[in-house]
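writing this on my phone so excuse typos. first protein, seq and then structure
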Amino acid sequence: MFHITSKFVVPALLAAALVASVPVTAQIIAPAKRPATPYTPKHLYSDTADPTADIAAALKQAKAEHKRIILDFGGDWCGDCQVLDIYFHQDPNLQLLEKHFLVVHVWIGHEDHNLDVAEKYGVPINKGVPALAVLDARGKVLYSQQTGEFEDMRHMEAASVTDFLNRWKS
């Protein structure tokens, strides 16, 4: 028998009680508190940037610093792109990036801009974003994402980024 002391019933409690066949007294539960500082998406992908010029500048810098280049195709609207950036800035990923890589963000609009750049580096944007390619300091493609490996970053662990960076570091 259920005794409901409020007109507000928490469905999960009620369902648990039905499954367990035990009496439950539902109570009003305060909504979860929001974080003091809500997450605000970063502006990562510039719609006015010239990705060809950005990649050329990165190649010059990569040669001088003996680093590789990660081309990150995506858009600020992409939650998975934002999560990838968060993971890039966590330990040990940040140290790996700073030591071994330069990152060039390539804006793809809503999968309708800079597609020629993605095609040049063998990255099929239609498989999902963020989409990554890794270049050596001469511009040779060492890796291009083919099956949307990072398109579901929000359900992946930061360790998957660590594994990727360790695999492709110079």
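second protein below, same order as before
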Amino acid sequence: MNDTSSDKVRNLESRVTEAGEAVGERVRNATAVAAAATGQAERIVQDATAATVAAAGQAKRVLGDAGDAAQQAWSQAGGVTEDVVDAGRRATQSVSRQIDEHPLLTVLVGVALGFVAGSWIRRGAVDQEPSPRRTRKPRRLRHKQVIKGGSAAATNHPPSTRVLSVSSKVVE
């Protein structure tokens, strides 16, 4: 009986040893996988850090260039402003001299420009719809009246009906 129990114990010991070796192998494999993952994570972090540093450097260069361009544009704008002011002064002096030399011609030109401007304003006011404040009352039409749509001689029509007069103007 002792032989069978010692065989069982040896058998059990060999199984435990095999299981221990298998567990050890798996632990070594897991350690190797963890080390590889750690190395890969370190490389990803290093790459991300390098990309961030490069992007920050590029952004700093772009901002510096934009600041230089803005300063240059500001200085050019100052020069252009001075040129415009000088041109305005010269034009004002020229117009003043012309008015002093030819006052009658100046008055005639002013009247002509006022007439043209008034014509444009009047034409613009006619082309636009009348404002609600300046609505006209509908006129009574004489003689033949035509309601839009072709019927003739309509004398009693509701105020909202559009009526064409003999001169083809629409009256509300």
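DSSP finds two helices and four strands in the chain. thats all i got for now
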